[in-house]
């Protein structure tokens, strides 16, 4: 059986009555069915800690990107600018889930908002509008570009730590070059790095673009860009998902072995 991969959902209004729905982009489902070689399990933004109920059944966890941002109260930041989308229901579900997954050794891949959640969950803080800071690039979505080009086009290169988890996941050619071209679709980013996180990639303006969890017992990587948009044509994006998939398969094998032993 394929490893079960939890995919974090957002709570979003839907339809003429703005009924709350739990949603995740199809791009994550296709990545899980493709290079991860897993079975996707959508995790609702229930607004409560479900980690004890969910984690015993999961072999990996993907923290998805989203237009919403982590509520600043979780990192003692100033209030968001008016109109900034938030999702407190998701925060209440994912932040404890992240801490529990790391403690339980469940492989984790955090993407964009997911990487920001990872940083906040472990005690870090965020810059809320990178484009407003002196000397920093605009990492947000360009409004004048076609959607497919924005999602898959390479906005800038990132410099990579040559001996980190990210370097170990990507192709040998990119590892030797110690750089990677990535898309860019975010306003927020790491301000104060959480104590347990180690930076693994940086944009030209110094923005942290990838992190790993130091001392984690399993694959635990965060990337600020969106490999789920272009894994079908970008070999490094595919390689990141494949590395996560191998870790999830190993976790499933170990979990199945433990369950079989307990049943004897």
Overall tally of domains: 1
Number of helices: 8
| Radius of gyration, taken over Cα atoms and rounded to an integer in Å | 18 Å
| Amino- and carboxy-terminal Cα gap | 21 Å
CATH fold naming: Rossmann fold
Percent strand: 15-25%
Structural class, by secondary structure, is alpha/beta
CATH architecture: 3-Layer(aba) Sandwich
Helix content percent band:
25-40%
CATH superfamily: Class I glutamine amidotransferase (GATase) domain
Q: For the residues shown, what is the average pLDDT? A: 92
The strands making up the biggest β-sheet line up spatially as 4-1-5-6-13-12-11-8-9
Number of extended strands? 13
What is the succession of H and E elements? EEEHEHEHEHEHEHHEEEEEH
Largest sheet: 9 strands, mixed
Backbone shape: globular
CATH class: Alpha Beta
Uncertain runs:
none
Distinctive features:
8 helices, 22% strand, 13 strands, hydrolase activity, globular, Rossmann fold, 9-stranded mixed beta sheet, 264 residues, PuuD-like, two-stranded antiparallel ribbon, alpha/beta, Class_I_gatase-like, Gamma-glutamyl-gamma-aminobutyrate hydrolase family protein
Fold topology:
Blueprint: E1 4-8, E2 10-14, E3 19-23, H1 26-33, E4 39-43, H2 51-54, E5 60-63, H3 88-104, E6 108-111, H4 113-121, E7 126-127, H5 147-152, E8 156-160, H6 165-169, H7 172-177, E9 179-182, E10 189-190, E11 197-202, E12 208-213, E13 220-223, H8 235-263
Parallel strand pairs: 1-4, 1-5, 5-6, 6-13
Antiparallel strand pairs: 2-3, 7-10, 8-9, 8-11, 11-12, 12-13
Helix pairs in contact: 3-4
């Amino acid at each position: 059986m394929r490893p079960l991969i939890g995919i974090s959902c957002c709570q979003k209004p839907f339809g003429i009555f703005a009924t709350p729905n739990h949603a995740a982009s199809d791009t994550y489902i296709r990545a899980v069915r493709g290079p991860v070689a897993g079975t996707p399990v959508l995790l609702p933004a229930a607004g409560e800690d479900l980690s004890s109920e969910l984690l015993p059944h999961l072999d990996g966890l993907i923290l998805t990107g989203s237009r919403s941002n982590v509520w600043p109260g979780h990192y003692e930041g100033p209030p968001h600018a008016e109109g900034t989308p938030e999702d407190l229901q998701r925060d209440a579900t994912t932040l404890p889930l992240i801490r529990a997954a790391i403690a339980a050794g469940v492989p984790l891949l955090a993407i964009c908002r997911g990487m920001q959640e990872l940083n906040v969950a472990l005690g870090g803080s965020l810059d809320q509008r990178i484009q407003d800071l002196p000397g920093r690039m605009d990492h947000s979505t360009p409004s004048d570009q076609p959607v497919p080009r924005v999602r898959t086009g390479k906005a800038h290169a990132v410099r990579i730590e040559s001996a980190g988890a990210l370097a170990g996941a990507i192709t040998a050619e990119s590892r030797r070059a110690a750089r990677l071209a990535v898309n860019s679709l975010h306003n927020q980013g790491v301000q104060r790095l959480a104590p347990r996180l180690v930076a693994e990639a940086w944009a030209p303006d110094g923005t942290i673009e990838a992190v790993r969890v130091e001392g984690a017992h399993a694959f635990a990587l965060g990337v600020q860009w969106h490999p789920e948009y272009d894994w079908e044509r970008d070999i490094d994006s595919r390689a990141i998902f494949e590395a996560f998939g191998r870790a999830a398969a190993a976790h499933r094998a170990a979990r199945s072995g433990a369950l079989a032993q307990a049943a004897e």
